[in-house]
Design goal:
This protein is mainly alpha-helical. The protein has one domain. It contains 3 helices and no strands. Helix 1 crosses helix 3. The longest helix is centred in the N-terminal third of the chain and has 23 residues. The radius of gyration is 13 Å and the shape is elongated.
C-alpha cells in the first residue's frame, strides 16, 4: 500500500504535534509557539494537528 500525499502530511503533522507535546512536558518549551508566535498561525497548526490525529484514528479504525 502506498501512501498518498495527504497521508504523509497527516503523519508529519501528528509527529510534529507529538514532538511538541513531548518538549512541553520535558522542557516546558513549546516549539510551535517559538516558530509561529502566539497568534492565529499557531492556532491553525494546532487545529491541523488535531484533524490529522482524527484522520489517522479513522484510518486505523477502518482497516479490515
Amino acid at each position: 500500500m502506498t501512501m498518498k500525499w495527504y497521508d504523509w502530511v497527516s503523519w508529519v503533522l501528528v509527529f510534529v504535534g507529538a514532538l511538541n507535546w513531548g518538549l512541553v512536558g520535558v522542557l516546558e518549551w513549546n516549539l510551535v509557539e517559538t516558530i509561529f508566535g502566539t497568534g492565529s498561525p499557531t492556532r491553525v497548526i494546532y487545529i491541523l494537528v488535531g484533524f490529522s490525529a482524527l484522520y489517522e484514528l479513522y484510518k486505523i479504525a477502518s482497516k479490515k
